[in-house]
């Protein structure tokens, strides 16, 4: 049984070591040294090779090394092949940490204090109770749910929005486009944890910002193209939005001259909110290979019709 890895080569070396320890029976190959292409049954990639169908005729499963699959051109992946995204505890832990710090940065007015510090001004602001700061997360998947479960422990009123109705303890759940306006109207800090699909592309735009309470803040940890960056700048200028924390931009890297870089009410990080943790990622992939061999359902298989 042969497994091919086609993503960051340095991480690939580490995958190779972990495979050798944990599953010596699997032959591990690191792109571009693929050996006999006909022997490859499993591929883990950030982006599959363009002529996947021709190049790897006996492939059985495609794994994404990231949590999303929006970087895949699914039209080039034969319909018969299951596509599995990365769901592993390291990604979840990283995202919970990142969004928690972002929400607390906004909640505890650290944007304002950064400006006071720059002006060497010792100035206090009234502390607002967590119970009066309403958090809303777009996306109630693996990450959105984990983030909300942590944020509710601080006492923030928490809500989430998904496509299909969900029920979660202590979290107000909204579903579908008809419920979006009501969800936004009760949200002071909006966190985007949606997958990027044709439906969600550009969703964070002027119309959506107008449905939030005046002075709300945005945290985008989904994908850059979820956000219309010009609309964000306009909403910050008008005061409709107060702060934005962006881990993702469009394009990436954000060009050095872009107005978002120097905006005093914007914080930018270079797509580092969370990353796959090698040991747990390899465990999850090996478990899925075992499942595949046993004819069991794969964990994290995407639904092509939904695009995530
Ligand atoms: P999941 O697939 O588990 O969850 C996606 C959620 O979004 C689901 O609740 C789904 O609804 C909801 N959703 C999708 N489309 C719509 C829609 N049209 N309307 C309403 N809700 C919708 O994904 P994860 O939680 O694992 O990850 C989410 C995203 O986070 C990834 O796709 C990626 O873009 C981003 N990410 C960013 C990282 C970073 O470092 N910045 C790292 C990892 C991920 P339903 O429940 O009904 O299916």
Task: Describe the protein's topology.
Elements: E1 2-6, H1 9-22, E2 27-30, E3 40-45, H2 52-55, E4 61-64, E5 83-84, H3 89-107, H4 110-118, E6 135-138, H5 142-151, E7 158-162, E8 172-175, H6 180-185, E9 189-192, H7 206-210, E10 216-220, H8 229-238, E11 241-246, E12 266-268, H9 278-293
Parallel strand pairs: 1-2, 1-3, 3-4, 4-5, 6-7, 6-9, 7-8, 9-10, 10-11, 11-12
The chain binds NADPH dihydro-nicotinamide-adenine-dinucleotide phosphate.
Keywords:
binds NADPH dihydro-nicotinamide-adenine-dinucleotide phosphate; 30% helix; Rossmann fold; 308 residues; alpha/beta; seven-stranded parallel β-sheet; elongated; single chain; five-stranded parallel β-sheet
Kindly describe this structure:
The protein has helices at residues 9-22, 52-55, 89-107, 110-118, 142-151, 180-185, 206-210, 229-238, 278-293; strands at 2-6, 27-30, 40-45, 61-64, 83-84, 135-138, 158-162, 172-175, 189-192, 216-220, 241-246, 266-268. Helix 5 links the parallel strand 6 and strand 7. The longest helix has 19 residues, at 89-107. Helix content is 30%, strand content 17%. The strands form 2 sheets. Strands 8-7-6-9-10-11-12 form a 7-stranded parallel beta sheet. It has a 5-stranded parallel beta sheet with strand order 2-1-3-4-5, with helices on one face. With 308 residues, the chain is an alpha/beta fold. The protein is elongated, with a radius of gyration of 21 Å. It folds into 2 domains: 2-88 and 276-294, Rossmann fold; 90-268, NAD(P)-binding Rossmann-like Domain (Rossmann fold). The model has no long low-confidence stretch (mean pLDDT 97). The chain has 9 helices and 12 strands. Bound molecules: NADPH dihydro-nicotinamide-adenine-dinucleotide phosphate (NDP).
């Amino acid at each position: 049984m042969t497994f091919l890895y086609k993503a960051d080569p340095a991480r690939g070396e580490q995958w190779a070591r972990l495979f050798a320890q944990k599953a010596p029976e699997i032959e591990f190959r690191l792109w571009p040294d693929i050996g006999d292409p006909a022997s490859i049954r499993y591929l883990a990639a950030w982006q599959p090779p363009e002529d996947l169908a021709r190049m790897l005729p006996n492939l059985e499963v495609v794994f994404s090394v990231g949590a999303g699959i929006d970087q895949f051109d699914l039209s080039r992946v034969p319909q018969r092949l299951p596509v599995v995204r990365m769901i592993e505890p390291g990604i979840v832990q990283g995202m919970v940490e990142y969004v928690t710090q972002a929400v607390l940065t906004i909640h505890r007015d650290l944007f304002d204090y950064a400006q006071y510090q720059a002006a060497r001004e010792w100035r206090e602001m009234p502390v607002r109770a967590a119970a009066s700061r309403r958090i809303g997360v777009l996306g109630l998947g693996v990450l959105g749910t984990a983030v909300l479960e942590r944020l509710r422990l601080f006492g923030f009123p928490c809500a989430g929005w998904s496509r299909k109705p969900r029920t979660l303890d202590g979290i107000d759940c909204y579903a579908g486009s008809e419920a979006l306006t009501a969800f936004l109207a009760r949200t002071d800090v909006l966190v985007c944890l949606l997958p990027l699909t044709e439906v969600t592309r550009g969703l964070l735009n002027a119309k959506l910002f107008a449905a939030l309470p005046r002075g709300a803040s945005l945290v985008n940890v989904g994908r850059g193209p979820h956000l219309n960056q010009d609309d964000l700048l306009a909403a910050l200028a008008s005061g409709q939005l107060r702060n934005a924390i962006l881990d993702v931009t469009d394009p990436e890297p954000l060009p050095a001259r872009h107005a978002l870089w120097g905006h005093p009410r914007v914080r930018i990080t270079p797509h580092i909110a969370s990353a796959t943790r090698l040991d747990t990622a390899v465990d999850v992939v090996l478990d899925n290979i075992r499942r595949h061999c046993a004819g069991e359902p794969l964990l994290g298989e995407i639904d092509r019709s939904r695009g995530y």
